[in-house]
Amino acid sequence: MRFFLFLMIGVLLCHNTKCQNTDDNLLQTLKKEIFKIKVYDQQKDQRILMYKNKLAKSTEGDKVTRYTLLDCLYEEYKNYNFDSAHIYISRLLTVSNELRDERKLYETKIKLGLIQLSWGMYKETFDCIADLAKHKLPTDIRADYYSLKYRAYQNLATYNTDKFYSEANQRESVKALDSAAHLYPTGTYMYYKSAAQFQLISGKKSKAIELLRQVITDSNVNYQRRAMAAFDLSYLVGDKEKRKLIISAAIYDMRSSTKQTLATFTLGKILYNEGRLDDAQLFLKTAIEQAKLFGSRLHEEEASILLDQVTAKILLNLANNKNQALKIMIGLVILALMGLTGISLLVYYQLKKVRIREALVQEKYQHLDSINKRLFEDAQIKEKYIGYFFKIISGYILKLEKIKRNTERKLKVQDYDELLKLAGEINIKKERDDLFYTFDNIFVKLFPNFVKSFNALLNTEDQIWPKDHEILNTNLRVFALMRLGINDSQTIADILETSISTIYTYKNRIKSKSLVDGNDFYRVIMDIKFGGM
């Protein structure tokens, strides 16, 4: 009996050791791939340069060739650099219109919608979906259209926590996914992907896992798609396989020069939780570098915050290790050399250094806490503003729909006088004033002490107070927008419908009259407290 017990324990230990070795081997492979990132990027840059040279040599009249080359450049950039991808998809849309090729135009609009969605541009994405819905699309393009529609509604359902809207968006996403899964040809990557997602939503987790495994093991599927499949599958399996799949996804991302480093960041987080701080630090630094290249500030900030925590914990561990060593040394010194004042002083100074290090670590933690509070505040502000302005946009859509129906009705009966009357009823100034009024109301609710705190920075004669019928005025709106994080003068000018020189004048005139130093003026504005709602 004992023999069999020992045998079972031995088998389990061997199995666990084998699994650990497999994971460690994959981790070593990933570390080697990190040092090859520049090589993979150089290969991609060479392909991009080749396409750019061909595009430069092509004639303006050869629209088909220019379309093909612009499409190749978009495909190279879409997971490599967002700004460049957006530039080339815009140029691709222009050429598609010039070609008057409906199929190419539909394909390009779907690609534009996907890149807008990946950047959180929901309104533009749904405008694109609405435009495509007006056309009779070919079967394969219809599949891509439904795939885009599924992702858009799924993202919106995840973002919008309101139960009514969330459930409605979820229903729309499931309908679109069902359509996509039935339209994609069996055996293709998009078929497996959409079918797996539909099976998962339908509660058939094992079937979804089976479909995703087929993608990963298919040698015809490129690295970038394998990475997405491996990462999606990692959420459906146990912890042991999850870790292995995330490492594999990170390896595939490196080899395909994919800069949306979700797998690398997730792996860094897992290793941090496991206490493997050096490895976690390496992968988080890699994730930050990749996010910078892609242009994703959100991913960069998220990884930076976790990296700061890892670094602080490493410093704390070093301090604790040194502190423990010093305690042992003190004990030995006391036992062996009682009364040696010199050694006691030496130990005292060493302990003092440790306390300084501990104080530095504590300061770092406080800094991280400050950053987390600011991020939380920004998230609350954005959530409330987006919610309010979604309501406003919905109201405008209803108004436009009503105007459209009235216009169509009067055109049919050729009642042009009524049409002119209808146009005269549209008061653009009132609409703009209503928009500013709504902005002012929301802002003052979020920052109830803003006007008072702002004027505290100025002499009494220079203070700016709203009139009786105003909540904010133009001067105050400039700095209200800055407090929301909008610092670009051109953007502020566009929002307030004025010139950029006027914005510069407002800023500089008020800054020059400030009671605080000019270099600190904008920082003090940003420190005005958020009051919530």
Largest sheet: none
**Rg on CA atoms, Å:** 30 Å
Could you list the spans in which at least 5 consecutive residues all have pLDDT below 50? 1-9, 11-18
* Helix share bin: over 70%
Helix-and-strand structural type: mainly alpha
Description:
This protein is mostly helical and 533 residues long. It has a domain at 427-526. The protein has 23 helices and no strands. It has helices spanning 2-34, 37-57, 63-77, 82-99, 102-118, 122-133, 139-159, 163-183, 189-201, 205-217, 223-234, 239-255, 262-274, 277-294, 297-336, 341-412, 416-424, 428-446, 450-455, 474-483, 489-496, 500-512, 521-526. The longest helix is centred in the C-terminal third of the chain and has 72 residues, at 341-412. The protein is globular. It starts with a helix and ends in a 7-residue tail after the last helix. The model is unreliable at 1-9 and 11-18 (pLDDT under 50). InterPro entries: DUF6377, TPR-like_helical_dom_sf. It holds the Pfam family DUF6377. Residues 253-493 form the DUF6377 domain. This is DUF6377 domain-containing protein.
Quick recap:
By secondary structure, this protein is mostly helical. It has helices at residues 2-34, 37-57, 63-77, 82-99, 102-118, 122-133, 139-159, 163-183, 189-201, 205-217, 223-234, 239-255, 262-274, 277-294, 297-336, 341-412, 416-424, 428-446, 450-455, 474-483, 489-496, 500-512, 521-526. It has 23 helices and no strands.
